[in-house]
Structure formats: C-alpha cells, structure tokens
Write a structure and sequence with these properties.
The complex is a heterodimer of chains A (306) and B (371). Chain A contains eleven helices and 14 strands. The mean pLDDT of chain A is 87. With 306 residues, chain A is of the alpha/beta class. Chain A is elongated, with a radius of gyration of 24 Å. A five-stranded mixed beta sheet of chain B has the order 2-1-3-4-5, sandwiched between helices. In chain B, helix 2 packs parallel to helix 12 (281-299), helix 8 runs antiparallel to helix 10 (215-245) and helix 10 crosses helix 11. Classes of the chains: A alpha/beta (306), B alpha/beta (371). The A-B interface holds A 11, 45, 48-51, 70, 73-74, 76, 78, 80-87, 98, 101-103, 145 and B 202-204, 206-213, 370-371.
C-alpha cells in the first residue's frame, strides 16, 4: 500500500529524516515508535503530501505523492497531533465542513457523518460545540474528521496525547474496528504500550533514522537480552550464588541480595526448587519482560521518553 | 521586596517587544505626524512648499502680467498660468485650492482706481488653505498696488465653485465619516486576517492543507471573508452617517457602492498582506497597530490631507486611506461623475492587486510552511 524509498528531509542544519525506507502492507497497522523529535511527524507530514522531501520517494497505492498529490490526498486520511477542529462549531458542523472539502455529495456526506459519529460513540453529542467537549471526545472527533472521505490509509499522529485511559481505550477500539474493516493504519507514538497493543509491524525511529523494523517478535530477536527474573533474598552471599550456578545452567548476575536470572517464566519453578534446597529465603520475585522499551534502550542506549 | 517585584515586572515588560514597540514607537509616530500637520517643525532654512494657485489672465496687459510676476515672487503661493475652463475644472476636482481670474479691463481699473475686476474661485472643502491664499493675496495687493481694501471691500470677488447645498454633504462630515470609516476598517480587517494565524496555531490550517485544497484558495477565501465584512462594515457606517448626520448617501449611490467595493478590496488585500508578513498573532498585533496608525495618519484619516506639509501630501498617495477619502470627497462634495472618479477606484484596485500578489508569495513562505 505504501512504499517509502530513501526519504530525507532537513530543516536548516537539522537532519529531521535521514534516508529512511520502509513498506506498509495493505490492511496492516504499522507503528512508528520513537521519542519526541525523532522524525515521526516529519515523516508523516511528507506522507501526507504537505511537506516536500529533500530526497527519496513516497508511493501510496502506486501513486507518487509528489507527482499525484491530489489523488494521494483522496487516498489518505490524516489525524493530526493537534485537535484541528473549530471550537465554536458543533461536531456535526465541523464534520460537514471537513467533508465538504473532499467534494462528497451532500446526502452521502450526511450519512457518513452519522455512521462515523456512531463509530466513535458521539452521535448523541453531535450538536454540541466542540469547546464543550472533553479532551478525549475532541480527539475522537479529530479522528472522525479524517474518515469522512473513506480513505484507504489512515495516518494517525500521536492521537492519544493528553487523554484519560478510558478515552484512550475507546480510541484503540475505533482503530481496531477500522482495521478489521480493511483500513491500513500508520500510527506514530512514543507510548510503547500502544504500539504493542495495536501494531502488526513497527519501525523504531531515532534521530531521523529507522534503527529497526519488523514484527514485535522479529524486533525481540534483534536484541541480545533475554527475558529475566529478578529474585530478592533476605540474605544472599557469593557462595550461595556459586552453589546455585552448580545447580542451574542459567546466566545469573548478583547485586547485593538481588539476583537476576535470565530465564523464561516456564523455567521459574526450577530456580525456586534450587533456592529451597539451599534454604535461601526469597523475599520478592519480579519478571523483567523484553518489551519495546527495552529494545529501544538496547538499540539506542536511550529511554523512549528521554 | 518591592524592588524585587519591580525588577521582575520591568524585565517582563522589556522582554515583550510588541508592548515596548507600542509604548514607545507609536507615540513617537503620532507626535511626528501631528507635529508635521500642525507645523512648528520646519527648520529655518526649509520653507514650506507654496500653495499652487491657478491664474487666468484675461486682461493680458503689462500691468496684470507685472502683478502676477510680483505675486509669484511671494514664498507662500505659486501662481500657475492656466485657461479659465481648465483652471475651474482643476479646482472642482480638488487638484488646486483656487483659481485667480483677472478679467478684461484690469489695467484700466488700476489706472482709474475703480473696482478691480478680479475673482478668486475656490474649493470650500479646502477651507484652511483658502484662508492662507486669501491672506497672502491681500498682502500682495496691498504691497504691490497699494489696495489693501480689494478683498476687504469685496472688490475681489471670492466664489466657492462647489457650494454647500441641501443635497450636498458638508466637507467636514465627509472627512469625518470617510476618514474614520477607512481607519476602523483597517483595524477590523487586520483582526480578521489574524484568524489565519489562529488557524495555524490551532492546527486547522494544517488540516486544510492536507485536504485537496490549493493553498492559494485558502488565502483567497480569507480575503473574500475580509471583503464581505469590509463591504458590510462600510455600508453600515455610511447608513449610520445618513441616519444620524444626514450624509446624502443616495446622491450617487452607484458610485458609492463601487467605491466601497474598491476600498474593501484594497483593505482586504492589505489585511492578507499584513498577516502574510508575520508568523505569530503577537507579531501581527504589534505591527498592525503601528502600520495602520501610520497609514491612517499620512493618508488623511486623522488629519485632513490639506493641512499636511507637501512631503506628507506626496507620501499620502501610497495609502488606501488617501484614495478612499478622495473618492468620498469626489462623490459627496465635488459631485463628480463616475467617469472622473473611476481612476481613483482603479488605483485602489491596483493597490489591492499588488498587495494580493505579494501576499501569495509571503503566504507560502511564512504561513503554510510546515516544519
């Protein structure tokens, strides 16, 4: 559905996007994960045809975004990071305005507004002014405005910024419904939980470069670190650790009374049995899962929310 | 404690460039404008530009010609030889303050010491300048002919070419309504133009650009909005002036409507130009206040153009205010036919077109640039 080849963009002396390439398949949810300033929004702006690239190309459904910008605009729906709505107009009038810009015939547009408001769960509030809405409701209308022309691809730039968990879940459900209906979704965020929940494939972007891309399991394979379990003991001597090493084949790292053992949850019982044999008193057990946060840290040496 | 708070407040005040600009620069501009208008700033060596008075010498004798030469040597007025028809037309159109006509038999009257056949025909809308011309001529005749009484005793006929009548507006009212209406319109339109910056800040402009809408269409739509509001605002102001002060707006309603449309176009273009040159609402507020005051000052919205020194009168032609106010005078005071007012309307349209063209370039560079 989308092919991006060697895309680059700089602003004065800042290289915002640096020679990135990726492909997004039809019907998948593709996540762009990276910290603020990584180049996610710049990439999305170029894909949205409102920002010209310095180099490289973007093809949406086979059409070059520079040469066929107008056709591409009809193929894509964009949910900007900002609440891009008129606060003094009702939700219905906002949607009517944005829909009209795509030349949708009046009767069809009214039907689409109805179904879209139903989808986002705000049909009963359609005549209320946007300024009377909560942050989460505004975000939902922000999404609705991008759906009226039935785009094939939906670009969502951090669509859950600054909203409560309930509204966030509602938005996730909307995204999942749209995806089930066959819509391709490109989702940028710096929240790894969102990407983990929603995305089929992920590109991790930092300082304008894609440092890794693939499915979650493919990304996990990229890093050396395995899942680990952290044990906290009442007392743990160096001798105790040596004794454990003779009993267990796992990699262990001691830090005072803590012991980090690189195992999966399935192997947990073996460690507990060994500890019982050595009469070591376990105070606490903590599972350190390999997640995107850990992958990002491993690949860049930085936290996602640095 | 007081000093700490005071220091903080001063620091904040001076960090607000717009505030500082409005606080210091705006009064300086106003003082300069009024000082030039009311005089008192001319240096000793630089005499004011003389007032151009047309002179028609029908007598064409040595006496009349000698007198014209002597009068012309005076610093305050400059006599310009002309034909009677042309001279009267120029005065009627507001180009010159008055026409001095020497009738046949002038030299005989001087020789026989009888009433001098001289007539001064003037534009009453330029009352202040007329008084200066009147005083200067009085002195001139006294000095060169020994006839101080020619004007005092109404032996020099003074006739206003454009007379006040029940169907005509008083020039003061035309100045007040026209000048104020255009100045207030400039402020309103600058505020409407600012809406574009609000859209940029809110993100709706970005969404407009994402939609299949040409950037130029967005600019033209904003200009169209400004133009509709301008037409409504000017119409409201003139209807009010008709109801409250009896301004005869139906005297030449077609010309008035056309002029309102032309002014609205020029002012709307000014609004979009202004908004295209800045990047934030704050920048717009500071800049628009100064530019509008300056433009209204030199353009005659605050002080009648005729009261201003020559260089300011020359500067006035760059402002929308000047052409608009002159147009209103042509309609309400000089009662000129539409054909004669059309060039002024054309200039307003040309100013508007020029500003629109510049706006389109700046709009792409400053407003729709995404980063």
């Amino acid at each position: 559905m989308i092919q991006v080849q060697n895309l680059s963009k700089s602003f004065q002396n800042i290289q915002a996007v640096n020679d990135i390439s990726f492909t997004i398949k039809k019907g998948e949810i593709f996540g762009f994960l990276g910290p603020n300033g990584a180049g996610k929004s710049t990439t999305l702006n170029m894909m949205s045809t409102i920002l010209k690239s310095d180099a490289g190309s973007i093809h949406i459904n086979g059409k070059n975004s520079n040469e066929s910008a107008k056709e591409c605009k009809h193929l894509i729906g964009v949910v900007p990071q900002e609440i891009s709505l008129y606060e003094d107009l009702s939700a219905y009038k906002n949607l009517l305005f944005w829909g009209n810009l795509y030349g949708i015939p009046s009767i069809i547009l009214k039907e689409r507004i109805h179904t879209t408001l139903e989808l986002i769960g705000l049909l009963d509030r359609k005549n209320d002014l946007i300024k009377t809405y909560s942050g989460g409701m505004k975000r939902r209308i922000n999404i609705a405005a991008a759906l009226l022309h039935n785009p094939k691809v939906l670009f969502m730039d951090e669509p859950t910024v600054g909203i409560d968990p309930q509204s966030r879940n509602h938005i996730f459900e909307v995204i999942e419904t749209l995806n089930k209906q066959g819509m391709t979704i490109v989702y940028t965020t710096h929240y790894m939980e969102e990407v983990e929940r929603l995305c089929d494939r992920i590109a991790i972007i930092d300082s304008g470069k894609i440092i890794a891309q693939g499915t979650q399991s493919q990304l996990k394979e990229l890093v050396q670190t395995k899942e680990s379990i952290l044990f906290e003991f009442s007392f743990l001597s160096e001798n105790n650790v040596n004794q454990l090493r003779t009993l267990l084949p796992y990699t262990m790292t001691q830090n005072k009374n803590e012991l980090l053992v690189e195992i999966t949850v399935q192997e947990l019982s073996a460690v507990i049995t060994a500890c019982n044999e050595l009469q070591l008193s376990i105070k606490d057990i903590q599972l350190n899962k390999i997640n995107l946060e850990a992958i990002f840290l491993n690949l860049t040496g930085k936290q996602l929310r640095d | 404690m007081i000093l700490t708070v005071l220091k903080k407040d001063l620091k904040l005040f001076f960090s607000d460039k717009k505030g500082v600009l409005v606080t210091f620069l705006l009064p300086i501009i106003m003082i300069t404008l009024f000082a030039f208008a009311f005089g008192g700033v001319a240096k000793k060596k630089s005499a004011p530009k003389p007032l151009g008075v047309l002179v028609v010498d029908k007598d064409s004798t040595t006496t009349s010609q000698e007198l014209i030469t002597k009068l012309n040597a005076m610093q305050t007025i400059r006599l310009i030889a002309s034909e009677e028809g042309k001279a009267l037309d120029l005065v009627r159109k507001g180009k010159n303050v008055a026409a001095l006509i020497f009738e046949k038999g002038f030299s005989d009257a001087v020789a026989t010491d009888t009433d001098l056949p001289i007539e001064l025909k003037y534009d009453a809308a330029r009352d202040l300048q007329m008084r200066i011309v009147h005083t200067v001529l009085k002195e001139g005749f006294k000095h060169h002919l020994g006839k101080a009484d020619v004007i005092n005793n109404v032996k020099l006929k003074t006739t206003s070419l454009i007379k006040e009548s029940s169907t005509k507006a008083h020039p003061g009212l035309v100045q007040a309504v026209g000048g104020t209406a255009i100045m207030m319109l400039l402020f309103s339109i600058a505020a409407i133009g600012g809406g574009l910056l609000d859209e940029k800040e809110a993100g709706t402009l970005k969404r407009l650009l994402i939609a299949p809408v040409k950037p130029l269409d967005i600019l033209l739509a904003k200009m169209g909005t400004a133009m509709v509001v301008s037409i409504l605002q000017l119409t409201t102001m003139f209807v009010f002036a008709w109801l409250a002060f009896g301004l005869p707006i139906f005297m030449d309603i077609f010309s008035l409507i056309l002029l309102i449309v032309c002014i609205s176009f020029a002012v709307s273009s000014f609004g979009v130009l202004l908004v295209s040159t800045v990047k934030t609402r704050q920048q717009l507020q500071g800049m628009s206040t100064i530019i509008i005051i300056l433009m209204s000052g030199i353009g005659g919205s605050m002080i009648p153009i005729s009261m201003m020194p020559a260089f300011m009168q020359n500067l006035a032609v760059v402002s929308v205010n000047y052409w608009g106010i002159e147009g209103f005078f042509d309609i309400f005071w000089r009662q000129l036919p539409l054909l004669t007012i059309l060039p002024k309307m054309g200039i307003l349209l040309a100013i508007g077109l020029g500003m629109t063209l510049v706006s389109t370039i700046l709009f792409k560079r400053n407003i729709i640039a995404i980063d």
